């Protein structure tokens, strides 16, 4: 199995953050908010290899959760505001940080999956 990355001239990070095709960097990756298009409209790359799974969500939950809980704890210790202030402060931050990062992070993981030729793991049974 060839473990060398597949270089196409397009950075997987740039294509992912722009939500563009990992091969050409021009075509749209998504057909909806999170639904991946069937193929690139520019170069025709079939997106059926996409299997980002729950990876983007896990990273976002950990990052956004740490940020919001840390800030909420700091605000509570420093100012001791009423609970309604916490609700007003943290609800928009949670929504923006989770929903705002979900698309670009999913696209980046898909682009990295394409660039590194990641595929389903298989057991080597020693058969030729």
TrEMBL record:
<dbReference type="InterPro" id="IPR009325">
    <property type="entry name" value="DUF983"/>
</dbReference>
<protein>
    <submittedName>
        <fullName>DUF983 domain-containing protein</fullName>
    </submittedName>
</protein>
<feature type="transmembrane region" description="Helical">
    <location>
        <begin position="83"/>
        <end position="102"/>
    </location>
</feature>
<keyword id="KW-1133">Transmembrane helix</keyword>
<feature type="transmembrane region" description="Helical">
    <location>
        <begin position="57"/>
        <end position="77"/>
    </location>
</feature>
<dbReference type="Pfam" id="PF06170">
    <property type="entry name" value="DUF983"/>
</dbReference>
<keyword id="KW-0812">Transmembrane</keyword>
<keyword id="KW-0472">Membrane</keyword>
């Amino acid at each position: 199995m060839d473990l060398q990355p597949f270089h196409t001239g397009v950075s997987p990070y740039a294509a992912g953050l722009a939500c563009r095709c990992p091969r050409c960097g021009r075509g749209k990756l998504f057909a909806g908010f999170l639904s991946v298009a069937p193929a690139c409209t520019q170069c025709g790359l079939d997106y059926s290899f996409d299997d980002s799974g729950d990876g983007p969500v896990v990273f976002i939950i950990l990052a956004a959760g740490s940020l919001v809980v840390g800030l909420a704890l700091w605000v509570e210790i420093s100012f001791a505001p009423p609970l309604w202030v916490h609700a007003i402060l943290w609800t928009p931050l949670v929504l923006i940080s989770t929903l705002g990062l979900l698309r670009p992070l999913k696209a980046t993981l898909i682009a990295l999956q394409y660039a590194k030729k990641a595929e389903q793991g298989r057991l080597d049974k020693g058969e030729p």
